[in-house]
Amino acid sequence: MVHDVCSAVHPMAAASPFFRQFDLPAHGVQLCRPEVAYGHPIDERRAAIAYADLERTCAGLGVDGARWRRFMEPLIARTDEVTETLLGDFRHSPRPRIAALLASRVLGTGAFRGTEARALLSGVAAHALGRLPSLVGNGIAVLLGHLAHTNGWPIPRGGTEKITDALVADLRAHGGCVHTDARVTDLSELAHARVVLLDLAPRGFLDVAASSLPDGYRRALRRVQYGPAAAKVDFLVTEPIPWRNTELAQAGTVHLGGPREAVYAAERAVAAGKRAKEPYVLLAQPMVADPSRGLPNKQPIWAYAHVPHGDSLDATAVIRRRIEQYAPGFGDTVLASRAVSATELETYNANYVGGDIAAAAVTMWQALARPVLRWDAHRTPLRGVYLCSAATAPGPGVHGMSGLYAAKAVLRREFGLDLPDDYRFGRTSPVS
Ligand SMILES: Cc1cc2nc3c(=O)[nH]c(=O)nc-3n(C[C@H](O)[C@H](O)[C@H](O)COP(=O)(O)OP(=O)(O)OC[C@H]3O[C@@H](n4cnc5c(N)ncnc54)[C@H](O)[C@@H]3O)c2cc1C
């Protein structure tokens, strides 16, 4: 029985330039793709469904079927460029054709007329964890929305830890080692290292290095805003969720938000620091894609609700109620549950300040100048010290790109190695 503690669903790990080159399957990670990438109940019976199959999705979207196809097809045709641009470090402007395509799509998410398509896109935009509608939310809807029809929204067989295991095994094969349970409280503890890459949020960096930082940079880090939070609940259930709309039973991911207006209202309330009456809930059913996850009559369900920054709410009751709205009887299937509030998330991982799982709010400004405005955002003013966390470009998610950009900056600045963009990293011989 495996519950994912943090991330569970991996469209970006399947599609990002880093992971495409690293090649997870070649490192033994099986990415299981559900037929339904994500579903979104709208009311007690109706649900909007994003199948991996584009045509099937369009067929279920009524008045918006043809529009969904026109919206998605050009993105799907150029998915590598779309993904590279949206997971870029924002220092290079995209080629004019891809820039025009992305601008038209980011601005065009509002063009849908039917409840279903609107709900689908708003549910994906809500992954931005902030006020909606927003350009950043639309950008996330474009990225993740089109990936549903290309690489899919996969779930790793055996759990997300398999991705970590693969990365650690590769590191070890190249002579590296990993120490866990070793909190760094002061940068001086790492003074022996020629180069340091810190997987820290701005707050964490200040905690370990504030006294060494120049005033301007320190002030800029202090100005970084943290956003709304996640309150997580894992359920152990006896059987699949008894969704009224049976198509939802095939979905790896389900967005519990209702119609677009309800999603927006909930996200606005939470961004304003208030608990939403009907909060947006992101839910994963890992066994839809990976039957190895459970045992007879024991299945994991992964969920989190969006809550205000720093909320200490135990979200068990609220998430249970949200699921029951669309799946009466769910409560009777629950054997056990484990809640981690937003404040407890921060205790678990200091990068999640106030439970903000993005490590810094994903606002338009903080998406472009992440964590602060600098040409090389991964480099800090301290000699040999770099940032590589989700608080740096391109932002949150399991895509490996923040680490890749930081590593490239290190190689360029510290070792004089200027790697071309198409450099095939990860293909060097392991240390024997
Ligand atoms: C509940 C939840 C669900 C999520 N779901 C998804 C999902 O389904 N798909 C997806 O793509 N993304 C998801 N994410 C987001 C994703 O997990 C993060 O964006 C990503 O892990 C960020 O990577 P990172 O390298 O910046 O830092 P992290 O993965 O946060 O790693 C930072 C590490 O540094 C450690 N650390 C912090 N301070 C110190 C210190 N002073 N000394 C030593 N160690 C320290 C932390 O304990 C942690 O282990 C989710 C996140 C959460 C919390």
Fold blueprint:
Layout: H1 11-15, H2 17-22, E1 31-32, E2 36-41, E3 47-51, H3 54-59, H4 65-77, H5 79-86, H6 96-108, H7 115-125, H8 135-147, E4 155-156, H9 161-173, E5 196-198, H10 202-209, H11 215-223, E6 229-237, E7 251-256, H12 260-271, E8 281-284, E9 299-307, H13 316-326, H14 330-333, E10 334-340, H15 342-348, H16 364-368, E11 385-387, H17 401-415
Parallel strand pairs: 2-7, 5-11
Antiparallel strand pairs: 1-4, 2-3, 6-9, 6-10, 7-8, 8-9
Helix pairs in contact: 4-8, 5-8, 6-8, 7-8, 7-12
Bound molecules: flavin-adenine dinucleotide.
**Strands across the major sheet, in which order?**
3-2-7-8-9-6-10
How large a portion of the residues is in β-strands, by DSSP E? Answer: 5-15%
Number of helices: 17
Structural class: alpha+beta
Largest sheet: 7 strands, mixed
Contiguous low-pLDDT stretches (5 residues minimum) are 427-432
In N-to-C order, the SSE pattern is HHEEEHHHHHHEHEHHEEHEEHHEHHEH
Q: In which range does the helix fraction lie?
A: 25-40%
| Overall form | globular
Q: How many whole angstroms does the radius of gyration measure? A: 21 Å
Distance between the termini: 35 Å
Bound molecules: flavin-adenine dinucleotide
Let me know the average pLDDT: 95
Number of strands: 11
Structure characterization notes:
- The strands form three sheets. Strands 3-2-7-8-9-6-10 form a seven-stranded mixed beta sheet, sandwiched between helices. Strands 1-4 form a two-stranded antiparallel sheet.
- A hairpin with a 5-residue loop joins strand 2 and strand 3.
- With 432 residues, the protein is α+β, with helices and mostly antiparallel strands.
- It is globular, with a radius of gyration of 21 Å.
- The chain has helices at residues 11-15, 17-22, 54-59, 65-77, 79-86, 96-108, 115-125, 135-147, 161-173, 202-209, 215-223, 260-271, 316-326, 330-333, 342-348, 364-368, 401-415, and strands at residues 31-32, 36-41, 47-51, 155-156, 196-198, 229-237, 251-256, 281-284, 299-307, 334-340, 385-387.
- It is 37% helix and 13% strand.
- Helix 5 (79-86) packs antiparallel against helix 8, helix 6 packs across helix 8 (135-147) and helix 7 crosses helix 8 (135-147).
- It has 17 helices and eleven strands.
- The chain has a domain at 160-226 and 359-423.
- It starts with 10 loop residues before the first helix and ends in a 17-residue tail after the last helix.
- Residues 6-10, 12, 183-184, 199-200, 204, 208, 230, 232, 304, 345, 349-352, 357, 359, 389-390, 396-398 line the site of flavin-adenine dinucleotide.
- This is Phytoene dehydrogenase-like protein.
